[in-house]
Write a structure and sequence with these properties.
Structural class: alpha+beta
Order of helices and strands: HEEEEEHEEEEEEHEEEHHHHEEHHHHH
CATH architecture of the largest domain: Alpha-Beta Complex
CATH superfamily of the largest domain: Aminoglycoside phosphotransferase (APH), C-terminal lobe
Strand content: 15-25%
Number of domains: 3
Number of helices: 12
CATH topology of the largest domain: Aminoglycoside 3'-phosphotransferase, Chain: A, domain 2
Helix content: 25-40%
Shape: globular
Strand order of the largest sheet: 6-7-12-13-10-9-8
Amino acid sequence: MTKTAFLRPRTAHLSEPLESLGGLLREWLPRQRWFAGKDRPVTDLSLLSMTELFPGCQHLLVHTGHGPLPGGAPSAGDCYQLLLGVRKHPSPRLGRALIGRVEDGPLAGLTVYDALHDPRSAQRLLDRLRRPGTAGPLRFECDPSLPVPAGLVPRLLDAEQSNSSLVYGDEYILKVFRRIQPGVNPDLEVPGALARQGCRRVPAPVAWYRTTRPFEATLGVLQPFLPNASDGWTLALHALAAGDDFTPQAHELGRATAEVHLALAEAFPAGAPGENGRTAAAMTERLDIAAHCVPALRPFVPGLRAAFAALATCDVGPPAQRIHGDLHLGQVLRAGREWFVIDFEGEPSRPLSERVSTHSPVRDIAGMLRSFDYAARQRRPWRPQWARRCREAYCAGYAAHAGWDPRKKHGLLRAYETDRAVYEVLYEARHRPDWLPVPMAAIERLAVRGD
């Protein structure tokens, strides 16, 4: 086998590349911001599919096995999308994109790296998206009414989250999903559906690519980029630093959220009524898992459970529907005087079946209210009055457009805000321990005073 053909897709020999790549990937994957299993060792690594996108760039889906989940439950592991560049003499500019030099096997003497950091590979990936076609199990598709021009210069965004994003010529942004689950990703499904509803608050998909093996799944989505936009988190921090009032922006953001929720209710079927009991049980289960992992949470468990138990007797609120699923200030953009909502993938750590199911719109509202609190705590001394004013303005803006007021659904709002704070505690304990006091302050407030 020649070194230029070492990763040709041959299902019977999928184990061959891992004989030389496995050790490097075991070390490299847990260091990536988007890798979900940081708190558990990689116990198994297997190659699910591989396809040559173009010479020097290979597309891989790899499965990682981990140790047991908290409480001893077995883990099903995760599937990740990798685009690997392979060179004999890599450019020094690749820096942190380097995975390592292979010492033995069919790749001996070659260096592998994350190809998304390579402008040449990023440019060729856009070329694949511009023209519908196939590459092995990969399918490249686009909206023919929205042609993408050639020659757009790519740049990889530094603010890597649970995925990777490439901006092309400040005209388009490509989100490359890293953690792959079977099915249509909601970040393709939802913006497409909202575009058909005429909702202008969400950029419509222009092109996308997916795989048919080993299962059907969305791999990436190209959308218009808003070059002069600022995300809500940055705007809120600037307002805090300058001592400026943010309530007019919060009010308009509430209206924008309501507009998106109404469009979602039109685009997707409504959920079944009477879900509060199952919702409370799911919230309690998540609380128990988080308390097992984060000892600081345990003294507040009884009060938090009471917030969830109250769901059984409180106002059922608006019907369940499709929602954003992970709404916060970092998921909204302001361009000029308009707010736009992005990133409909939901919380990637949760199963896709849950992320595409219906929920109360109060869940999104609670996520944004928690985000105002996060922003207020980024400056010392803490300014709780700033967060309270923003929360009030946001809910008032939402009520003005939606026809119902979230503030009058106190039991629902408390339960969903509590559930969000529990999620934040677990996330911060795993990824940003220095931030743990922020959600813990909310936990104490919600458990003790029930605000």
